[in-house]
Amino acid sequence: MSGRLAEVGQHLATTRELGVVVGAMRSIAAARVQEARQQLDGVRAYAETLGTAIGEALALLPEPQRPAAGEAGHGQGLVLALCAEQGFVGGFNERVLDAALACRSGSAGQLWLLGERGGLGAQERGLQPDWTAPMAVHLDEVPALAGRLAEALYARLGEGAATRVTLVHAQPGRPGVLARPLLPFDYGRFAVSRRAQAPHITLAPERLIIGLADEYLYAELCEALVLSFAAENEARMQAMVAAQGNVEQRRSELLAEFRRVRQDEITEEIVELSASRL
């Protein structure tokens, strides 16, 4: 009987330790979600400022010379999906991959993936992404990652391997996955702003508009990465909440079994002591 008691006690101690680990992971994920929400305001303010500048720069050109609105067309598409780098995120990657495959134009469309766990999920589906890279695991990695993404996308479009890019990522607080066109750049979404006095510029308007568009694309990628980062950690936090509930339930079951086995052991000892005195 003492062997069984020791075994249950060991399981109970392990469950306590597991509960501490799960609680710590939940706290870390919650802190990262909050940090991402705070960073998001700055990224969006930056994008809004760039959008205003693009509208003012467009006003410097006569209407026939302004860039096209950026119709997607019917060329080969590229889908960039932002998945999770680390595990314990429930069905997060499956939802993103489902949305990415729905956007891909058949087997000919290219699939780019961020996140090691997303890559593993793609392999389980028999998919071979055309390009992969690690997803940011800390917010301070986002600016550099957005820069590398922009360079890689422009390089691929410059090679003629793709003519349009769709960005797919999750959002915190929302069950669905967002899929939106990223390239060709859509200038039509910016209201042309006319000042009473034209701004002083040191570049040709065409070059200025292209430079602002590149910077706006960078801001869009930063926003998507921060949103995906927040959504990933929100999914991890929810998974840890469920895990914590399961751990508590298992701990209660083990504690009840420990008490029962201990009581049986005490009863057996009393019976043995009583029999030895007869």
UniProtKB/TrEMBL annotation:
One cellular component (GO) term of this entry: proton-transporting ATP synthase complex
Keyword Magnesium applies: no
Molecular function terms from GO: proton-transporting ATP synthase activity, rotational mechanism
Protein location: Membrane
A matching Pfam family: ATP-synt
Annotated membrane topology: Peripheral membrane protein
Keywords: ATP synthesis, CF(1), Hydrogen ion transport, Ion transport, Membrane, Transport
Annotated InterPro entries: ATP_synth_F1_ATPase_gsu, ATP_synth_F1_gsu
Protein's UniProt keywords contain Membrane: yes
Family label: Belongs to the ATPase gamma chain family.
Function: Produces ATP from ADP in the presence of a proton gradient across the membrane. The gamma chain is believed to be important in regulating ATPase activity and the flow of protons through the CF(0) complex.
This protein's name: F-type H+-transporting ATPase subunit gamma
Organism, as annotated: Azotobacter beijerinckii
Highest classification ranks of the organism: Bacteria, Pseudomonadati, Pseudomonadota, Gammaproteobacteria, Pseudomonadales
